[in-house]
Amino acid sequence: MASIYDVAAAAGVSITTVSHVYSGNRHVAADTVARVMEAAKDLDYSPRLSARALATGRSMILGVCFPAESSLLHRNPYFPALLEGLSAAAGKQGYGFLLIPNALGEDGVSQGELLGQLDGVIIADPAEDDVRLAAFLERDLPVITVGRWMSRQDIPWVDNDHSKALENLFIHLDEQGYERPLLLNKRPTISYESDVEQAFQRETAARGLPGRTVWCEDFFSQKTYDVAREILTAGDRPDVIIASTDSQALSVLQAASDLGIDIPGELGVVGEGETVLAASSIPPLTSIRVFPDKLGDLAVGLMLDLLNGGGGERSKLVPVELVVRASTERRSGMEASP
Amino acid sequence: MASIYDVAAAAGVSITTVSHVYSGNRHVAADTVARVMEAAKDLDYSPRLSARALATGRSMILGVCFPAESSLLHRNPYFPALLEGLSAAAGKQGYGFLLIPNALGEDGVSQGELLGQLDGVIIADPAEDDVRLAAFLERDLPVITVGRWMSRQDIPWVDNDHSKALENLFIHLDEQGYERPLLLNKRPTISYESDVEQAFQRETAARGLPGRTVWCEDFFSQKTYDVAREILTAGDRPDVIIASTDSQALSVLQAASDLGIDIPGELGVVGEGETVLAASSIPPLTSIRVFPDKLGDLAVGLMLDLLNGGGGERSKLVPVELVVRASTERRSGMEASP
DNA sequence: TTGTAAGCGTTATCAA
DNA sequence: TTGATAACGCTTACAA
């Protein structure tokens, strides 16, 4: 492995010059640059990042950290999509992403070891009590969250504008004549869930409607189906169910189908996440589209601001998009007008 | 930030001793260890990994690399699950995982920079022509693949035993009396797809059945549905369709349902991947379960072997499991016996 | 059982 | 426009 010394010798310059050719930190004469680059290519040289990190005090590595809860990373496509967004954005700036294992914190060993390496950490959907997060703050690692950390509002974040999403959704539901909404939500442990709840209460209150929420702990199993079935067979049946994830909404569709309930005539169904599932379900699902790649991009931007002196470290809200499909469209635009 | 010098001074020992307390590379007297650890805790010290990396020539960071094709990472839950397996296994050994952005290679900038940092790279489902892979081998970075690299069989790999999976599947299909199988597969660009094709041909040939394969480029869109519909309405209708992913299989289920074809009576359907979808579809889907966490574990093990002198760098095949559900179960075990 | 001192490959501060 | 040289914080012979 060639070092900066080898390149300097081959190019007939000092290591300082080679260093500056690579860092761009000061001007180097064009022909000198050419000579250095050629020597570097000949020797197959590239700067050792660990040496650079030691000299600068910056590793150029960011950590990323997903909810520990039941390996959500691979059950909800939102997270891998976010990870890609983060990784792409960071890559463009020369930063890399280290995935922080969920086990961190239980396993005392790797904890300090790995964290010492990081320039900062991005946390997706932080739970209040996650032991890892406490560790980051103690070492005062720069932290950005995707979704807000409810107990520490001072930490810069990016987030989806769920509030606006529900505002728009209710306008749509008004148009479609739905009047007995029900929110199928998870008991709030992250900001998303409490945002949705609050916005739901706000919108229903504004319309004089009851803001009925059913809490449903389990996102992905048979349980959601059972809960949905119970809701649909009980006395006071809602005419539209808003589910906090697309997969929950699919369970509702299924339960309704099994009970012979017509969708969207007797029951509207709305999901959130706009996964592949939503477009291809029967009937296609009205859903709220989020943009994890955009979130990733902004989160990295915020992090870099923080690392580079922290000028504009303002948090950012990302617009979402209501995608209307058959599951709530009982009056087409054509018929509605006159 | 405290350094090894601060700790040594506070504990009244040399930096060598502190170093050895942390590395475990030589014995240190128990009370000395205690003194050092206390000083370290007081000073909130943890070794700077970049310094360690510079001194040892090892970064303790592995790269991981997923198929570039249309961001498969977030469309197929297999990949995030694998990533978690890798990350957990690596974490236990003090290694971290850097996600290599898909853009790498197009963007010349970050290429050398990031790669210089890595001790090795694990590649999931390598495509033959991926430019990134060429780059790794040129720099002779140690490489392990998950799924085999078809053009370079010399590279150590871990893989699912798809061949055995199809063997078992066909035994099951025999029992259920299926006789006109059709394979819905993707044109082979990775070893998985060609393994499945080969095993399918082998099993059908052994039974004197036609080995009919339909190639279907698009895994997740409407297209699969259309292809399935075409297959089911054409003259020579299969009595069982084996799909190369669960989501493909779901499209088949849907098409069959729309056409009023009874499952599993008139048509059996089999998926692969054993995602959450399989268990909750209507009817529940017979599928081949893979164990990405296990693969991740073994891949990391192989990588460490390679890094530590490369003793037992033998590749490994991981058993998979046939999960029989209603979509192929037309004769229950009860009825079948007499 | 412990310590001294020479690297590891960069960047950064001076100075020219 | 370029160079010497001292950090950066660790590991690891070699010595004691």
Describe this structure in words.
The structure is a homodimer of 338-residue chains. Chain A is an alpha/beta fold and 338 residues long. Chain A has three domains: 53 residues, 434 Repressor (Amino-terminal Domain), CATH 1.10.260; 126 residues, Response regulator (Rossmann fold, 3-Layer(aba) Sandwich), CATH 3.40.50.2300; 129 residues, Response regulator (Rossmann fold, 3-Layer(aba) Sandwich). Helix content of chain A is 44%, strand content 15%. Chain A is elongated, with a radius of gyration of 26 Å. The interface between A and B is large, with 56 and 55 residues. β2 of chain A pairs antiparallel with β2 of chain B, so a sheet runs across the interface. The structure holds a DNA duplex (16 and 16 nucleotides).
CATH class of the largest domain in chain A: Alpha Beta
- Record field, number of beta strands of chain A: 12
Unreliable stretches covering 5 or more consecutive residues of chain A = 334-338
Integer average pLDDT of chain A: 87
Number of separate helices of chain A: 14
- Please name the CATH architecture of the largest domain in chain A: 3-Layer(aba) Sandwich
* Strands ordered across the widest β-sheet of chain A: 2-1-3-4-5-11
Order of helices and strands of chain A: HHHHEHEHEHEEHEHEHEHEHEHEEH
> How large is the radius of gyration of chain A?
26 Å
Determine the strand fraction of chain A and express it as a percent band: 5-15%
Main interface by residue count: A-B, 56 and 55 residues
The CATH homologous superfamily of the largest domain in chain A = Response regulator
Structure classification of chain A: alpha/beta
Kindly give the count of domains of chain A: 3
CATH fold-level assignment of the largest domain in chain A: Rossmann fold
Largest sheet of chain A: 6 strands, parallel
Q: What's the overall geometry of chain A? A: elongated
Helix content of chain A: 40-55%
Oligomer: homodimer
Distance between the termini of chain A: 77 Å
